[in-house]
């Protein structure tokens, strides 16, 4: 089965920097595809999560949270539009937050920071380990994205919806999540 890896807090603000393309090349035997610069990978060969996590930790020059998801879960999430009926435009970014565990208990939705009336970050849906949200392209938004981990009571890494769609496309090109 294909796996999707999301590394948390890498290549941001000059901290925990590395070259994802080099890591993907080093993991060539697992048929790893790098997606962007934020530490997102599709692993198309069969490997246990434990072995994959150990291999990543051994090869990364720093400690970070590693979220590993089944490819079929990512494919399922993109089969519907979790942002239907939500505002869109050039100043609004759709994102997915990925955690290591299911969100239990889930916060009441929509979850808005700093407030429902003047939101910079808004979570509009939850599906298992995935939180779907929007954020405004404003300088103060970064401070509110940090509050998501408090709301979900644990580590959470975010990816632009376009990245998630690119991952789903890679999974589909490979004939779907391999079993």
Numbering strands along the chain, what is their spatial order in the largest sheet?
A: 6-7-8-5-9
Please trace the helix and strand order, writing H or E for each element.
Answer: EHEEHEHEEEEHHEH
Q: Average the pLDDT over all residues and give the rounded result.
A: 92
Helix/strand-derived category reads alpha+beta
Oligomer: single chain
In short:
With 179 residues, the chain is α+β, with helices and mostly antiparallel strands. Helix content is 28%, strand content 26%.
Give the secondary structure arrangement, pairings included:
Blueprint: E1 3-7, H1 20-26, E2 32-34, E3 40-43, H2 49-59, E4 66-70, H3 71-79, E5 92-99, E6 111-113, E7 121-127, E8 130-136, H4 141-145, H5 147-151, E9 156-160, H6 161-173
Antiparallel strand pairs: 1-3, 1-4, 2-3, 5-8, 5-9, 6-7, 7-8
Q: Can you describe this structure?
A:
By secondary structure, the protein is of the alpha+beta class. The chain has 2 domains: 81 residues, Alpha-Beta Plaits; 85 residues, no CATH class. The relative contact order is 0.20. It has 6 helices and 9 strands. The strands form 2 sheets. The chain has a 5-stranded antiparallel beta sheet with strand order 6-7-8-5-9.
């Amino acid at each position: 089965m294909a796996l999707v890896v999301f590394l948390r807090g890498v290549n941001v603000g000059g901290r925990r920097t590395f070259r994802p393309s080099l890591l993907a090349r080093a993991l060539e035997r697992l048929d790893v595809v790098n997606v962007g610069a934020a530490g997102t990978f599709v692993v198309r060969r069969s490997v246990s999560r434990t072995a994959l996590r150990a291999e990543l930790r051994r090869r990364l020059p720093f400690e970070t949270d590693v979220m590993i998801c089944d490819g079929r879960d990512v494919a399922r999430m993109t089969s519907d539009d979790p942002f239907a009926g939500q505002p869109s435009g050039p100043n609004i970014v759709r994102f997915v937050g990925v955690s290591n565990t299911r969100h239990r208990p889930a916060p009441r939705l929509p979850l808005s920071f700093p407030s429902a009336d003047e939101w910079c970050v808004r979570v509009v849906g939850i599906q298992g380990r995935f939180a779907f949200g929007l954020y405004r392209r404003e300088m103060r938004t970064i401070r509110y994205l940090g509050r998501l981990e408090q709301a979900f009571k644990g580590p959470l890494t975010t990816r632009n919806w376009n990245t998630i769609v690119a991952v789903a496309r890679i999974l589909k090109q490979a004939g779907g999540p391999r079993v």
